[in-house]
Amino acid sequence: MESTEFLIVGCGPAGGIAAREAARAGVATVVLERDAVVGAKRVCAAGLRPGFCEAFDLPRSIVHCNPPLISITTAKRNYAFGVGTAHTTTREELDGTIAALARAAGADIRCGMLFRSLERERDGVVVEYADYRAGTRKKIRARSVFLAPGSSARLDAVDPRFAHRDWNAGLITCMQYRVYPQSPAIDYAYGVLEMHYYVSPRSGRNVIAWMFPKRDHLSIGLGIQAKIPGAELRAELDAFLATVERRLFAGIPFTIRTEGNLLYGGLPRRAIGADRVMVGGTAAGLVDATTGEGIHEAATTGRLAARSAAASRAGRVRDPAVPYERATKAAFYGRLKHRHHLMAFLERKPARFDVLFEQLEATPVFANLLQHDRNDFSALQWMYLYAQAAKFSLRAMRA
Ligand SMILES: Cc1cc2nc3c(=O)[nH]c(=O)nc-3n(C[C@H](O)[C@H](O)[C@H](O)COP(=O)(O)OP(=O)(O)OC[C@H]3O[C@@H](n4cnc5c(N)ncnc54)[C@H](O)[C@@H]3O)c2cc1C
């Protein structure tokens, strides 16, 4: 049977960064990716937080626009924040570039390979996968495994310790149009990330919608929690598109490419590391439920998994899943659990969105702090955050 040191499932930002950083550290790394081409089928608005390319050593050439402004619209009004220059890209460029860098560092990325199952052995893990190209089932033995298959992760059968009862309830059905106007939209469109929170007049459901600008197109999409029939989602998106068109590219002919995918917006998975197997990115449930962002979280888990795999190779840790789980939970669980509860609280009474956004608009320091991971905060910043949170809770309860 073939063997390697580090086996990764999925070549999104989590798997790709894990592959590049493990290979750079000299760890023999194999990636199994289901799709025929890395990144080609990923559906995503592909907004990157300020500093993402520098943090993950990626070329700025993947960046399409650098919007300095975030605009949030509710049923009541529009709010605008400047919280540092964000970036937009496409997933074919982001994932494709990370994969190319991982290959250059020595990782063996294999496309058209579907992960099926794994079995523990005394000193490693045996992974079974389907090789679509050869039309055969194969096995590979690895010292450690990083599972990063995104929102389609069904891990209960892989290892019952990774089971997450509420996984399906956390899924958000998304549809997105890539809108290609024949001539550029108004200038404003390329300097802003737009988020919209509203209750659909058609279905009464809470909708989160967005417009993210790209060099040659606008990503215009929306998501609704629960499984939504395609026709209902399309009607909702067509209505939203009409409002964006009126404001940003009225009278300009355009073509559309339709994309659909599931986003996860529930609580993080309870267990994400056991006996040499680590779970990362969206498969670990690491998405900000208030914004749908998960690329930074995914890439960070890739980095943490690669570090643990390298430490295991060097004999510094027996089971790399232990430090991996500890570090990932410390980095993200506090913030992401809070974001999940906050979103549920806001959606129960949508007037609460305005209470929050009015406060964020009035206190840019608060808005800025919320963009950062909790382990970056000083004691003083924590006190300030608690004071702002208490103020918000009191006002929101009255809304
Ligand atoms: C519509 C939409 C818009 C979004 N917009 C943003 C945004 O603007 N900014 C942001 O930060 N986040 C956004 N997100 C979230 C972001 O896409 C995810 O958080 C991120 O992609 C997670 O990366 P990942 O590597 O964990 O998983 P993914 O990117 O989903 O990658 C998983 C990979 O695993 C592969 N795979 C799956 N199953 C198998 C298998 N059995 N065997 C082998 N390979 C497999 C897939 O083909 C894929 O390549 C958005 C999500 C959606 C759905």
Spell out the CATH superfamily of the largest domain: FAD/NAD(P)-binding domain
Structural class: alpha/beta
Number of strands: 17
Specify the CATH class of the largest domain.
Alpha Beta
How many domains make up the coordinates? 3
CATH architecture of the largest domain: 3-Layer(bba) Sandwich
* CATH topology call of the largest domain: FAD/NAD(P)-binding domain
What is bound: which ligands?
Answer: flavin-adenine dinucleotide
The main β sheet shows up as: 8 strands, mixed
List strands and helices in order, with pairings.
Blueprint: E1 2-9, H1 13-24, E2 29-33, E3 47-48, H2 52-55, E4 69-73, E5 78-81, E6 87-88, H3 91-104, E7 108-111, E8 113-121, E9 124-131, E10 136-147, E11 171-181, E12 192-199, E13 206-213, E14 218-225, H4 230-248, E15 254-264, E16 273-274, E17 277-279, H5 295-313, H6 321-348, H7 351-362, H8 364-369, H9 379-398
Parallel strand pairs: 1-2, 1-10, 2-7, 4-12, 10-17
Antiparallel strand pairs: 3-6, 4-5, 8-9, 9-10, 11-14, 11-15, 12-13, 13-14, 16-17
Helix pairs in contact: 1-3, 1-5, 5-6, 7-9
The structure holds flavin-adenine dinucleotide.
Flavin-adenine dinucleotide binds next to helix 1, strand 2, strand 8, strand 11 and strand 15.
